[in-house]
TrEMBL record:
The keyword Coiled coil applies. Transmembrane segments: none annotated. Residues 1-24 form the signal peptide. Residues 246-281 form the RING-type domain. It comes from Gossypium aridum. One of its GO terms (molecular function) is ubiquitin-protein transferase activity. This is RING-type domain-containing protein. InterPro entries: Znf_RING (IPR001841), Znf_RING/FYVE/PHD (IPR013083). Keywords: Coiled coil, Metal-binding, Signal, Zinc, Zinc-finger. It holds the Pfam family zf-C3HC4_3. Residues 141-182 form a coiled coil.
Amino acid sequence: MLIFFIGLVHVVGFAPGPVPVTDGSDGGAEMQWNNGVEPKRKKLKEQDFLENNSQISSVDFFQAQSVSTGLGLSLDNNNNNRMASSGDSALLSLIGDDVDNELQRQDAEIDRFLKVQGDRLRQSVLEKVQANQLQTISLVEEKVFQKLREKEAEVENINKKNMELEEKMEQLTMEAGAWEQRARYNENMITALKFNLQQVYAQSRDSKEGCGDSEVDDTASCCNGRAIDFQLLCKENSDKKELMACKVCAVNEACMLLLPCKHLCLCKSCESKLSFCPLCQSSKFIGMEVFM
């Protein structure tokens, strides 16, 4: 909207424009125009002044009018520019507010997106770490179980070997007992044989000392002594056979050593039939054959 403002200018030769007059009653100002109001005398003086001094053409008047109009247009342009600048500034402020809101919204969306992505990344990392930990724990458990199985197998082998050694020790103990019994039996036999030999030697010596003075008596005594020695030997052999005979059948030679009583009193056939010792009546654990 263009506002035309025509400024009031004071043109030489014309009376001045409206002059404020204060009457002092109400303090107001009244505008009065000089043309048509002043007295005739004043009009005549003005006409003389205008005729004698100078005249202003209509061109000058219109030029003054154009100058005042240009000033008004320039003022209008300034006002328009000022109003346009104020409108632009308001528009820019509105656009700036929208841009700020949009930037804030985008920042919030970016922050939310980054938070979601960070949570997902953290969750994936935690899942991978847990999976690795579980895999490591499973591998360690498998190795531990394998070691335990190996140790259990070793313990079983050791226990088996211990049992075998114990059985072998029991067998060796029994064999040692049998050999000890046989050694004692042999010692007893040696002692008995020595005693028998001593008796035979004593009897032969007594027979030699009791010989007669004549040769016939000596011959007779010698023959009688030999006969006695033969009888003694036969008797000893028979006693030995009776001593070595089986105490059950009395036919076969006793060759089985009974444990734990350690009596040599049964033959091989009778030992398989009896479960006790015929001498001490104790229960038989095992019978071992003794080679004489």
